[in-house]
Amino acid sequence: MALLRHTTGEIKERSALTVNPAKTCQPVGAMYAALGVHGCFPHSHGSQGCCAYHRSALTRHYKEPVVAGTSSFTEGSSVFGGQSNLISAIDNIFTLYDPETIAIHTTCLSETIGDDLRQISQKAIDDGKVPAGKHIVYANTPSYIGTHVTGYANMVKGIVKGFTKKSGTPNGKVNIIPGFCEPSDMAEFRRIAGQMGVEILMAPDTNGVLNGPLDGHYQMYPKGGATVEEITSMGDSVGTLGLGRWATTDAVNYLDSEFKVPGKVLGLPIGLKATDRFVNELRLMSGTDVPESINFERGQVVDIISDYSQYFYGKKVTMAGDPDQLLALVEFVITLGMIPAYTVTGTSGKYFDERMKELLKDVPYDCKFKSGGEADMYLLHQWIKNDPVDLLIGNTYLKYIARDEDTPLVRHGFPILDRVGHQYFPTVGYAGAMRLMEKFLGAIMDREDRDAPETKFELQM
After folding, report:
1. CA atoms of 268 and 181, how far apart (whole Å)
2. Where in this chain does the record put each Nitrogenase/oxidoreductase component domain (predicted)?
């Protein structure tokens, strides 16, 4: 905290230094995706320390115990390779913990050595280490490139690639591949599809895994998660909707090229316009109509925007997080009449810059944004030092800037370590849009109440 007080407004170009990055490493996202498969045991092919960090990051965010294995590299493994460790781990995991699937992801160490997961997995099968009816899927997730979003995308493709088949008999269902979002958001996708009468196959699906009930009985493999049978059947679906360009494009393209299942990649349906696009594409792909219950929820969102636009209008917002979430949030706050003054994401990609320019072209303010390794919290803080904002939106790490600059913070994204509710209440869809507006308005009005003189301290807005 004290270090933030040394942040200056003098911004200098940096090409090889990241300070307080707006991201974390690939295996965290890979482990999260693996937990969205029913009966799946994530396995980190690297050192114990790496696995401990990945598990800790997810456990602290979801307030649920995250179980995973590790190849426990020693000095010998680090020099000669980890094949022996991984085969022993596969044997031990199936023997002791009896999962349906082991989802293996690599780390910096195993990637630097050059371990071949495909070859090692096949050897484990040939050596009889994988029991009949059990499965192994895998993904390469080196931490020295990409982010947790990249790791999530790689594991999602690995899951689809490892299970999906085409029987030749269409199932009439729509595949939904959710981006990096909360279990509650995945539940909301399923609820919306259910209201529209659309049968879906969704993978991964962490609802019921990382937001389940406390009933007095520990379950290593909760009831939630996409089943192997469901993922296998994705090759027979009428189409695929990917929700998040960074997190789902590879899997959508694989289903299209390998099984001729046509796919469409949308942004995460956060906010009014993004949800409209999701509902419309789901309607077109399934051949159904939008029911009155969905229209009613949309009308509620429009009503709130109409009623409270006077409090949102012109408020300057700073955001940090994942690109799929940020692009949707930027569009949403613009819809509310707010100004997305500063935006950073640690995940790089040309599309982010292009889409941001498109979204900001009519905003009457010199909005700044940046993606990639140098797009960090330090740069964000420098921008705020030069021109303060009215609201921060992002993960828990923004709380230090919020306190240092005395600016309200709405927590959104990953990780959220000091609050609860994010895994239980969605921020996607029309219901999520209403929740976000309530949170935005609450933060803004709480600050106005705190600073209001007695003559303006009113009972109602």
Report:
1. 9
2. 25-444
What does the buried/exposed string (b/e) look like for 60-78 if buried means 16 or more CB atoms within 10 Å of the residue's CB?
A: ebbebebebbbbbbeeebe
- The whole-angstrom distance between residue 266's C-alpha and the CA centroid of its chain comes to 14
Q: How far apart are CA 19 and CA 385, in angstroms?
A: 16
Range 174-291 has CATH code 3.40.50.1980: yes
- Please determine, looking at this structure, whether the domain spanning 2-19+294-455 carries the CATH number 3.40.50.1980: yes
Q: Is the peptide bond before 269 cis (omega within 30 degrees of 0)?
A: no
Please state, in angstroms and rounded to a whole number, the distance separating the CA atoms of residues 203 and 206: 9
Q: Which DSSP letter does residue 284 get?
A: H
According to the model, what pLDDT value does residue 160 have? 98
Helices marked H in 127-203: 148-163, 183-195
62 phi and psi angles, rounded to 5 deg: -95, -10
> What does the DSSP 8-state code read for residue 4?
G
The answer regarding whether domain 26-163 maps to CATH 3.40.50.2300 reads no
- What does the pLDDT look like over 289-326, one tens digit per residue? 999 999 999 999 999 999 999 999 999 999 999 999 99
pTM: 0.96
State both tokens at 249.
């494009």
- Between CA 122 and CA 138 the distance in angstroms is 11
Query: CA 182, CA 184: separation in Å to the nearest integer?
Result: 5
Using CA atoms, how far apart are residues 415 and 399, in angstroms rounded to an integer? 12
> For 179-257, where are the E strands, in sequence order?
200-202, 239-243
Residue 17 main-chain phi, psi, to 5 deg: -140, 130
Task: Specify burial of residue 313 (Cβ count, 10 A radius: 0-12, 13-18, 19+).
Answer: exposed
Residue with token string 């990409």: 146
Fold match between 2-19+294-455 and 174-291? yes
What is the DSSP pairing of strand 135-139 with strand 174-178? unpaired
How many whole angstroms separate alpha carbon 159 and alpha carbon 104? 10
Cα 268 to Cα 271: distance, rounded to the nearest angstrom: 9
For residues 282 and 193, the answer to whether their CB atoms sit within 8 Å is yes
- pLDDT (0 to 100) of residue 377: 93
Domain boundaries, the chain: 2-19+294-455, 26-163, 174-291
Task: Give Dmax (Cα) for the chain.
Answer: 80
